[in-house]
Amino acid sequence: MSQSARIARRALSISILGAFLSTAFAEDHYTKSKEPVFPDVQAGHALLYIARPDFTRLIPEGTFKVFVDSTPVGWLPQRAYLAVQVDPGSRIVWGPSSATQRIDFQADKIYLLVLAEQYGQNRAIVGASWESGDPASVRNFVGGQKLTYVEPNKDSLVPLREEGEKKFGKKEQQAPEVHAAALPATFEKVWYRRSQHASAWKPYDASGTLTVTNDAIEYKSDKENFTIPTKDVKSISMGRLSGLANYGDEAPWGIVRYTNAGAEETVAFCDRNTRGGTERVVLTLGSVVKPEPSPQSTVADSQLEAAQEKHAETAAQPQANVQPSSVQPSAAVSSSEELVPYVGQKGDFEIALPKGWAAYDQSLLPGAKADSRFNLTVFYLSPNPVPQEAIAARFDEMSVELMTKIDTGEVPSFFFQKFPAKKGMSCDGFTEGAEKEALKVVTSGSPFGKGATILEAPHSEQVPVAGCKGLRIKGSGQPPKENTPQTIDVYAASDGSALYLFTLRSHADYYKKNIDVFQRSMATALLTAAH
What domains can be seen in the chain, in order of their start residue? Predict the structure, then answer.
């Protein structure tokens, strides 16, 4: 037998062994249900749903252990959820990496915790946190994310009891019992930052005084002062951000999402002066938000709620009535900027672009039509706009400076690509296998390629896109040898013959500035197959 044959045979045997071990692990530790399971709340107990919607390939830890206080309650593989009956009282949910959260469980109430994961080099997890969702929408969330219910095999939990008793004391110190401060509340030496990615030298932008009243959240420091009216706050959540050198910051941050002049912005606070300081800040912030969060929790994940609402809207209406897109333009840009139809690829789709934009179509390069490498059309704000009633595709030479600004997002832009459709892709939606194929296409290169640092694990959700049932795929990462993270936000749709990808890719700071115009154009998109 040749050396290459021996290597191939060895690789095959390792692959088969890995698949066998993975299957054996699942069979020994938990059972997957073929249908979704939604148990009733047992009398005198609280019902806790724990979900893990993310899917990241080839990660070292495919399944996490989950504990409530010192008691092991189950196993949590990717794209799965479990349900646990919990005794009322203040309890700590922990297990997956640094995800540790104290919750005051009330009898006969339902709770939903969703695991948010951060991955670094070699796909090793560098941080995780629990984010609270609306328990009233758990059915829509499970259906929209295609989660599988898993139930632990009771014998598999027995060996974990010793681990739970041994580690619980440390977890209790990480999540001390805290309460909201009386208003008006002032917190000194509070860290503040706006970016998911830390600066090169310290994990915060400023240190100052945070004041919370019924009407406003006020922050004052030597570097920046601002006030956020509480009526503009959309959600309060607690999570972990990237630390120095892109490693997960072990300290929790209170994350505030709010609207400013029609655009959504995010700011985060961290109080390291006392143990449980950030938790107290989050509880205090949550006590003044209008509308108040659900009774089960003082934090809410606005992105999760948006995903649930989108899925509910999609499920409630027949396909013929699906709107061109689930995205809606913000009020700040909906009427102030004229849209112009793009007519360059009417055989495939229609879309409207802001006035002054141009379309750069690589396939118009001589000899490029038959080469799949040149299937990219870039829509961008032209430095030399000309009056026009319709925008046509063209292939003009771009300066290196302009291409660089487009690539980073400094010049507002997004791009379109067309690929052959895979099995299970159509205007009626994507099967689970087809959804994985689309995710693979989007994440095959930078900023998720070999050696990249994953800041937000790429994930997909089902949403209406261009008149069809499509996908939204989003994630962020930092390519190797680069100093700035990138965010990718993709709307995918198919007509059964082709896979259409509309992509916003920008440096993280520019993403927040470009997302509105991208969604505004996507709200006009319509595949020819959807007519």
Answer: 23-174 (no CATH), 185-305 (2.30.29.30), 318-530 (3.40.1000.10)
